[in-house]
Amino acid sequence: MSVTDLPGAKAGKAATVDAEEARRARRRRVEQTARYVLPLLVMVLAIWLWDRIVVWNDIPHFILPGPSRVWASLTGDWNLLWDSALLTGRITLMALAIAVVGGAGLAILFNQSRMVELSLYPYAVILQVTPVVSIAPLIFIYVESKTVGMLMCAWIVAFFPVLSSTTLGLNSVDHNLRDLFRIYGATRWQRLWMLQLPSALPYFLGGLKIAGGLSLIGAVVAELVAGTGGVGTGLAFRIQEAGYRLNIARMFAALAIVAAMGVFIFAALSLLSHMLLRRWHESAIKREH
Amino acid sequence: MARIAPFAERSELLRVSAVDKVFPGNVAALRAMSLEVREGDFISLLGPSGCGKSTALRLIAGLSDPTAGRIEWSTPRAKGDLGVVFQEPTLMPWATVAQNVYLPFRLEGTPYSAAKDDILQTLKLVGLEKFQNAYPRALSGGMKMRVSIARAMVTQPKLILMDEPFAALDEITRFKLNNDLLDMQARIGCTVIFVTHSVFESVFLSDRIVVMAARPGRVIEELHVDAPHPRDEAFRTSADYAAHCRAASQALEQAMEAAA
Ligand SMILES: Nc1ncnc2c1ncn2[C@@H]1O[C@H](COP(=O)(O)OP(=O)(O)OP(=O)(O)O)[C@@H](O)[C@H]1O
Ligand SMILES: [Mg+2]
Asked: Does residue B193 share a domain with residue B96?
């Protein structure tokens, strides 16, 4: 080990991989496989157990349907569920988009004007800490359009993580770099554009990942409160409706789709974050050991 | 090539006159500091921790205002007249080496195409022309410091302020960078004010060493190192160098006692 660390030994390193390096590579490979195989195994096991419990105990399907029934509902009701998923997904993505614009925009505004920040920040916090379920019914009294109302609900839930993480990022500029910009006579816009926004990017992306999940929650809650009518039927309403009809299998099927959407949003935002940061940010380096 | 005039013929660049700096809580960071900086000087500020070296640099850079006294430039300072190197490389991690060096020009509004030649030339000067498209995280500590120096030099400023730029580097890298720094200064013909804790570094680099003491921060002594330039490894082993080091050490010891 100590021998390979000598500078002179470096030349030979490419040719002969030392034992530690080989061990590390093997461990990495094993971990890579386990990352996908193990959760899959857990899922298969859980589904099998679920099936056995239903069969062994003779549980009636309107109390707990077995996995095969849920699957049948998922495929049989696919058109219905897919249309609902599209609606919920559209509201979620639109809410996420305005949460990003609103959250990041407010953060920049607050950063540029201390007075605006002092005036408005407490209200942003109040909006955040008040449970959306309790605001939503009010919103639907005053807002005519169901879509706009749902967007407002989802926005209220999702904008705050973007706002707070972007604010933190804008204020986390290296103070020496800030001094350097001052010495070179940078304008406030140059400082914002060339220094603060790039510094804030990793923070913003962290907030974005949280906001993605929250906007789905916001959309689902808004749907439950808004009910159907006018804009078609989303997944949340499908779950509620299937519950009224004791169609438990469809409830599970719709739930699975909602969960899959959440996972998809998180994965997509993680990928986006990785693409934007991989070239320069410390979080994107693969270190040894 | 060497645009630096001999000692006697240098004209004044800026003058620090009886500057006090008092921080809230009555911390006297600097008291009655005076310093005449002439074009082409290499001045070291040498002193124990807390004697106000960084404070003096910040005042000269215009990053903070003196509580009393004045800092006057002989000719009004333009944007690109001043370069700064901090103790940390202070690079923008999201920008490549070339983009980092481009920063002073970019802030002036100079398009990249117009600045490109200067950037490449400066990168060549610090030996990093092959790394112009690398991101800072791919560089070693010494290489990052070179980028930082290139950025400070790229506008060919009149004055470069350096605050313990090599303190975090190993001795071999440090010697190498010291040699290169003198070389670069001679080429560009700029003035340097250099903060350091190291007696050896200050003697090797400087024409003048300003020895400072703490509590309150003040100038104790000014030493002249009149060894001719260019200086190289031979100077490091000469009797002349040893004698200057001894003198500087003694002055530094006095400074420590004065503070105690
Ligand atoms: N912003 C500040 N507010 C209050 N006190 C300060 C501030 N900056 C520096 N000081 C004080 O001024 C004195 C001189 O600080 P300065 O950073 O200039 O010392 P220094 O010589 O650079 O020390 P070092 O070698 O450790 O970097 C110290 O006592 C320090 O505590
Ligand atoms: Mg200091």
From this structure: no
| Predicted pLDDT at A71 | 95
Owning domain of residue B200: 10-81+158-259
Q: CA–CA separation, A261 vs B186, rounded Å? A: 64
Angle at Cα A219 formed by Cα A218 and Cα A222, nearest 5°?
A: 85
Domain match, B169 and B251 both: yes
- pLDDT per residue as tens digits for the range A8-36: 444 444 556 788 888 998 999 999 999 99
Burial category of A259 from C-beta neighbours within 10 Å (exposed 0-12, middle 13-18, buried 19 and up) = exposed
Q: What is the pLDDT of residues B180-225, one digit of tens each?
A: 899 889 888 899 999 998 999 999 999 999 999 988 899 999 999 9
Q: Quick one: B122 and B201 in the same domain?
A: no
Answer whether residue B5 is part of any domain.
Answer: no
Q: CATH number for the domain including B238?
A: 3.40.50.300
B107-115: long-range pairs with CB below 8 Å, 24+: B107/A181, B107/A184, B107/A185, B107/A186, B107/A190, B107/A194, B107/B79, B108/A184, B108/B79, B108/B80, B108/B155, B115/B154
* ipTM of this complex: 0.91
CB-nearest partner of A180 from B58, B84, B95:
B84
CB atoms A183 and B84 under 8 Å: yes
- Rounded CA-CA distance B218/B211 in Å is 9
Atom of ligand 1 nearest to the CA of B197: 25
Whether B88 and A195 lie within 8 Å, measured CB to CB: no
Average pLDDT on B124-135 reads 93
**In this complex, do B61 and A180 lie within 8 Å of one another by their Cβ atoms?**
no
For ligand 1, is residue B212 a contact (CB within 6 Å)? no
Q: Is B213 domain-assigned?
A: yes
- State whether B246 and B139 are in the same domain: no
- B19 and B144 share one domain: no
